[in-house]
């Protein structure tokens, strides 16, 4: 090992003039084929034999160090927990790990919103003290969460721009989950004032979740994966209803109305522990991300030399407020929120009062539409990216097709629900309508990243804030109707919901856009596009590209596969939203005329056999120069 240490110090002076830093070296090594720094701690495979049949090394003393180990890429130090347990999910790339964890976070957040309806239905049978609430108090309790939720929407966009968005997202959910533990006690107090205050505080914390999630994708989502990553994360809000409705009813019926609140409070705290372990602000701060994935994300996004976050004074409010594509997103968000909160708050009541379902039955049957939607949302995101990536439809047409198709079909099926006289017919129409609305998430809900990636979190806060008004209005509009006529009011309720969706469909179809807006372009001083560190990525002649290393090939869900063949030539130009205006877009590579795909990802130097297996000189057969550590030692 002494010989290896001496060679490392010499090689450090040869490649890049880096100062000897064993910590950086070990982290860098950890990305080479999944070994290196972690390999040394875990006692992993040390044979060094790659798929190409390269040279095998019996121990670390015989293994030469790759020049790529000394790339000038700043890597974070390993945390204490990383030395025992790697911060990764072995079955998926880092960006999909974050999307999955965000999905689970949304599941918990939206599951908590289902607890109150189950508690109220259970309280009707037990004569619980909180069932003495008046209609006005009950409406206040139902809408109080959204009072706080509305307040922090736009500020949440700036908070997510100023501070690490991943930390904001995690803290918002764990804080709300902690407060959720106090709701059962607050419900036992008279007049409902205390529970209203607790739910307002919950809304204040959760109001930053959507803006923070968009802030995360600003650094993690390659342009051609925006739809699938965002919809994977956002599908948690619908999966939360799928799980929350039946689980809340089951726990309330089996244990008591308090049980759903305690269960979800604990779920949120446990989830937060995994979130802070696995999720990071950006790829450069992730201690376990692979080098190929890191370079692929950065090459796809590009990066300003000194990117600055938008502030209250630098945000183009006047232009934003005069932009019809912005209003299209806002109107669509409001219309979708109206129907979503209608189902979250009153679907169980609809099934119980009109068709005589029990509490637990209403929860399980009511979760079916949301279960179908949960599967539709990520599928719709993948389909939308496929249409854009292959130039079948422009981004604008994809957004309009998915949003208007989803809204129109949901509105149509809600009319069937309104006039259905049987439980089977009502549930069939409700399931179809909610399922089709899942495609709309690939329309308006990711459109912010198309028209203004720089201000995506602020726009999400603005649009989601207006959408939150629906969550405030719906209880006041419907509680009185339900109290007066709990059986016959539903025709009016669902006809109104259908009209709201058809209005949103029409407005979005006319005014929506998928192109970068002129007011969203970065300042002139930030239009310098990021270039990779010296020596990290080199321009090569196409004839020399064949043996340059492993390239990532996109699978159906973004998992990296490694392929010896590379594609250096790009296809014809395709406009895919924000990256279409390359000259003025900080998220596009200079000179790019087509989307950057994983086939165009920079080479991986992680494969030992590829790194050391070349034997010809540069320019002979397109292979890289051979690397002889002994030769370097002799020269030194």
TrEMBL record:
Lineage: Eukaryota, Metazoa, Ecdysozoa, Arthropoda, Hexapoda
Example of a GO MF term: L-glutamate transmembrane transporter activity
InterPro entries: MFS, MFS_dom, MFS_Na/Anion_cotransporter, MFS_trans_sf
Keyword Translocase: no
Protein name per UniProt: Vesicular glutamate transporter 1
Chain coiled-coil ranges: none
Cross-referenced Pfam families: MFS_1
Keyword Aminoacyl-tRNA synthetase belongs to the record: no
Annotated SUPFAM superfamilies: MFS general substrate transporter
Transmembrane segments: 168-187, 193-217, 229-249, 261-280, 326-350, 362-380, 401-419, 425-446, 458-478, 490-511
Annotated source species: Drosophila kikkawai (Fruit fly)
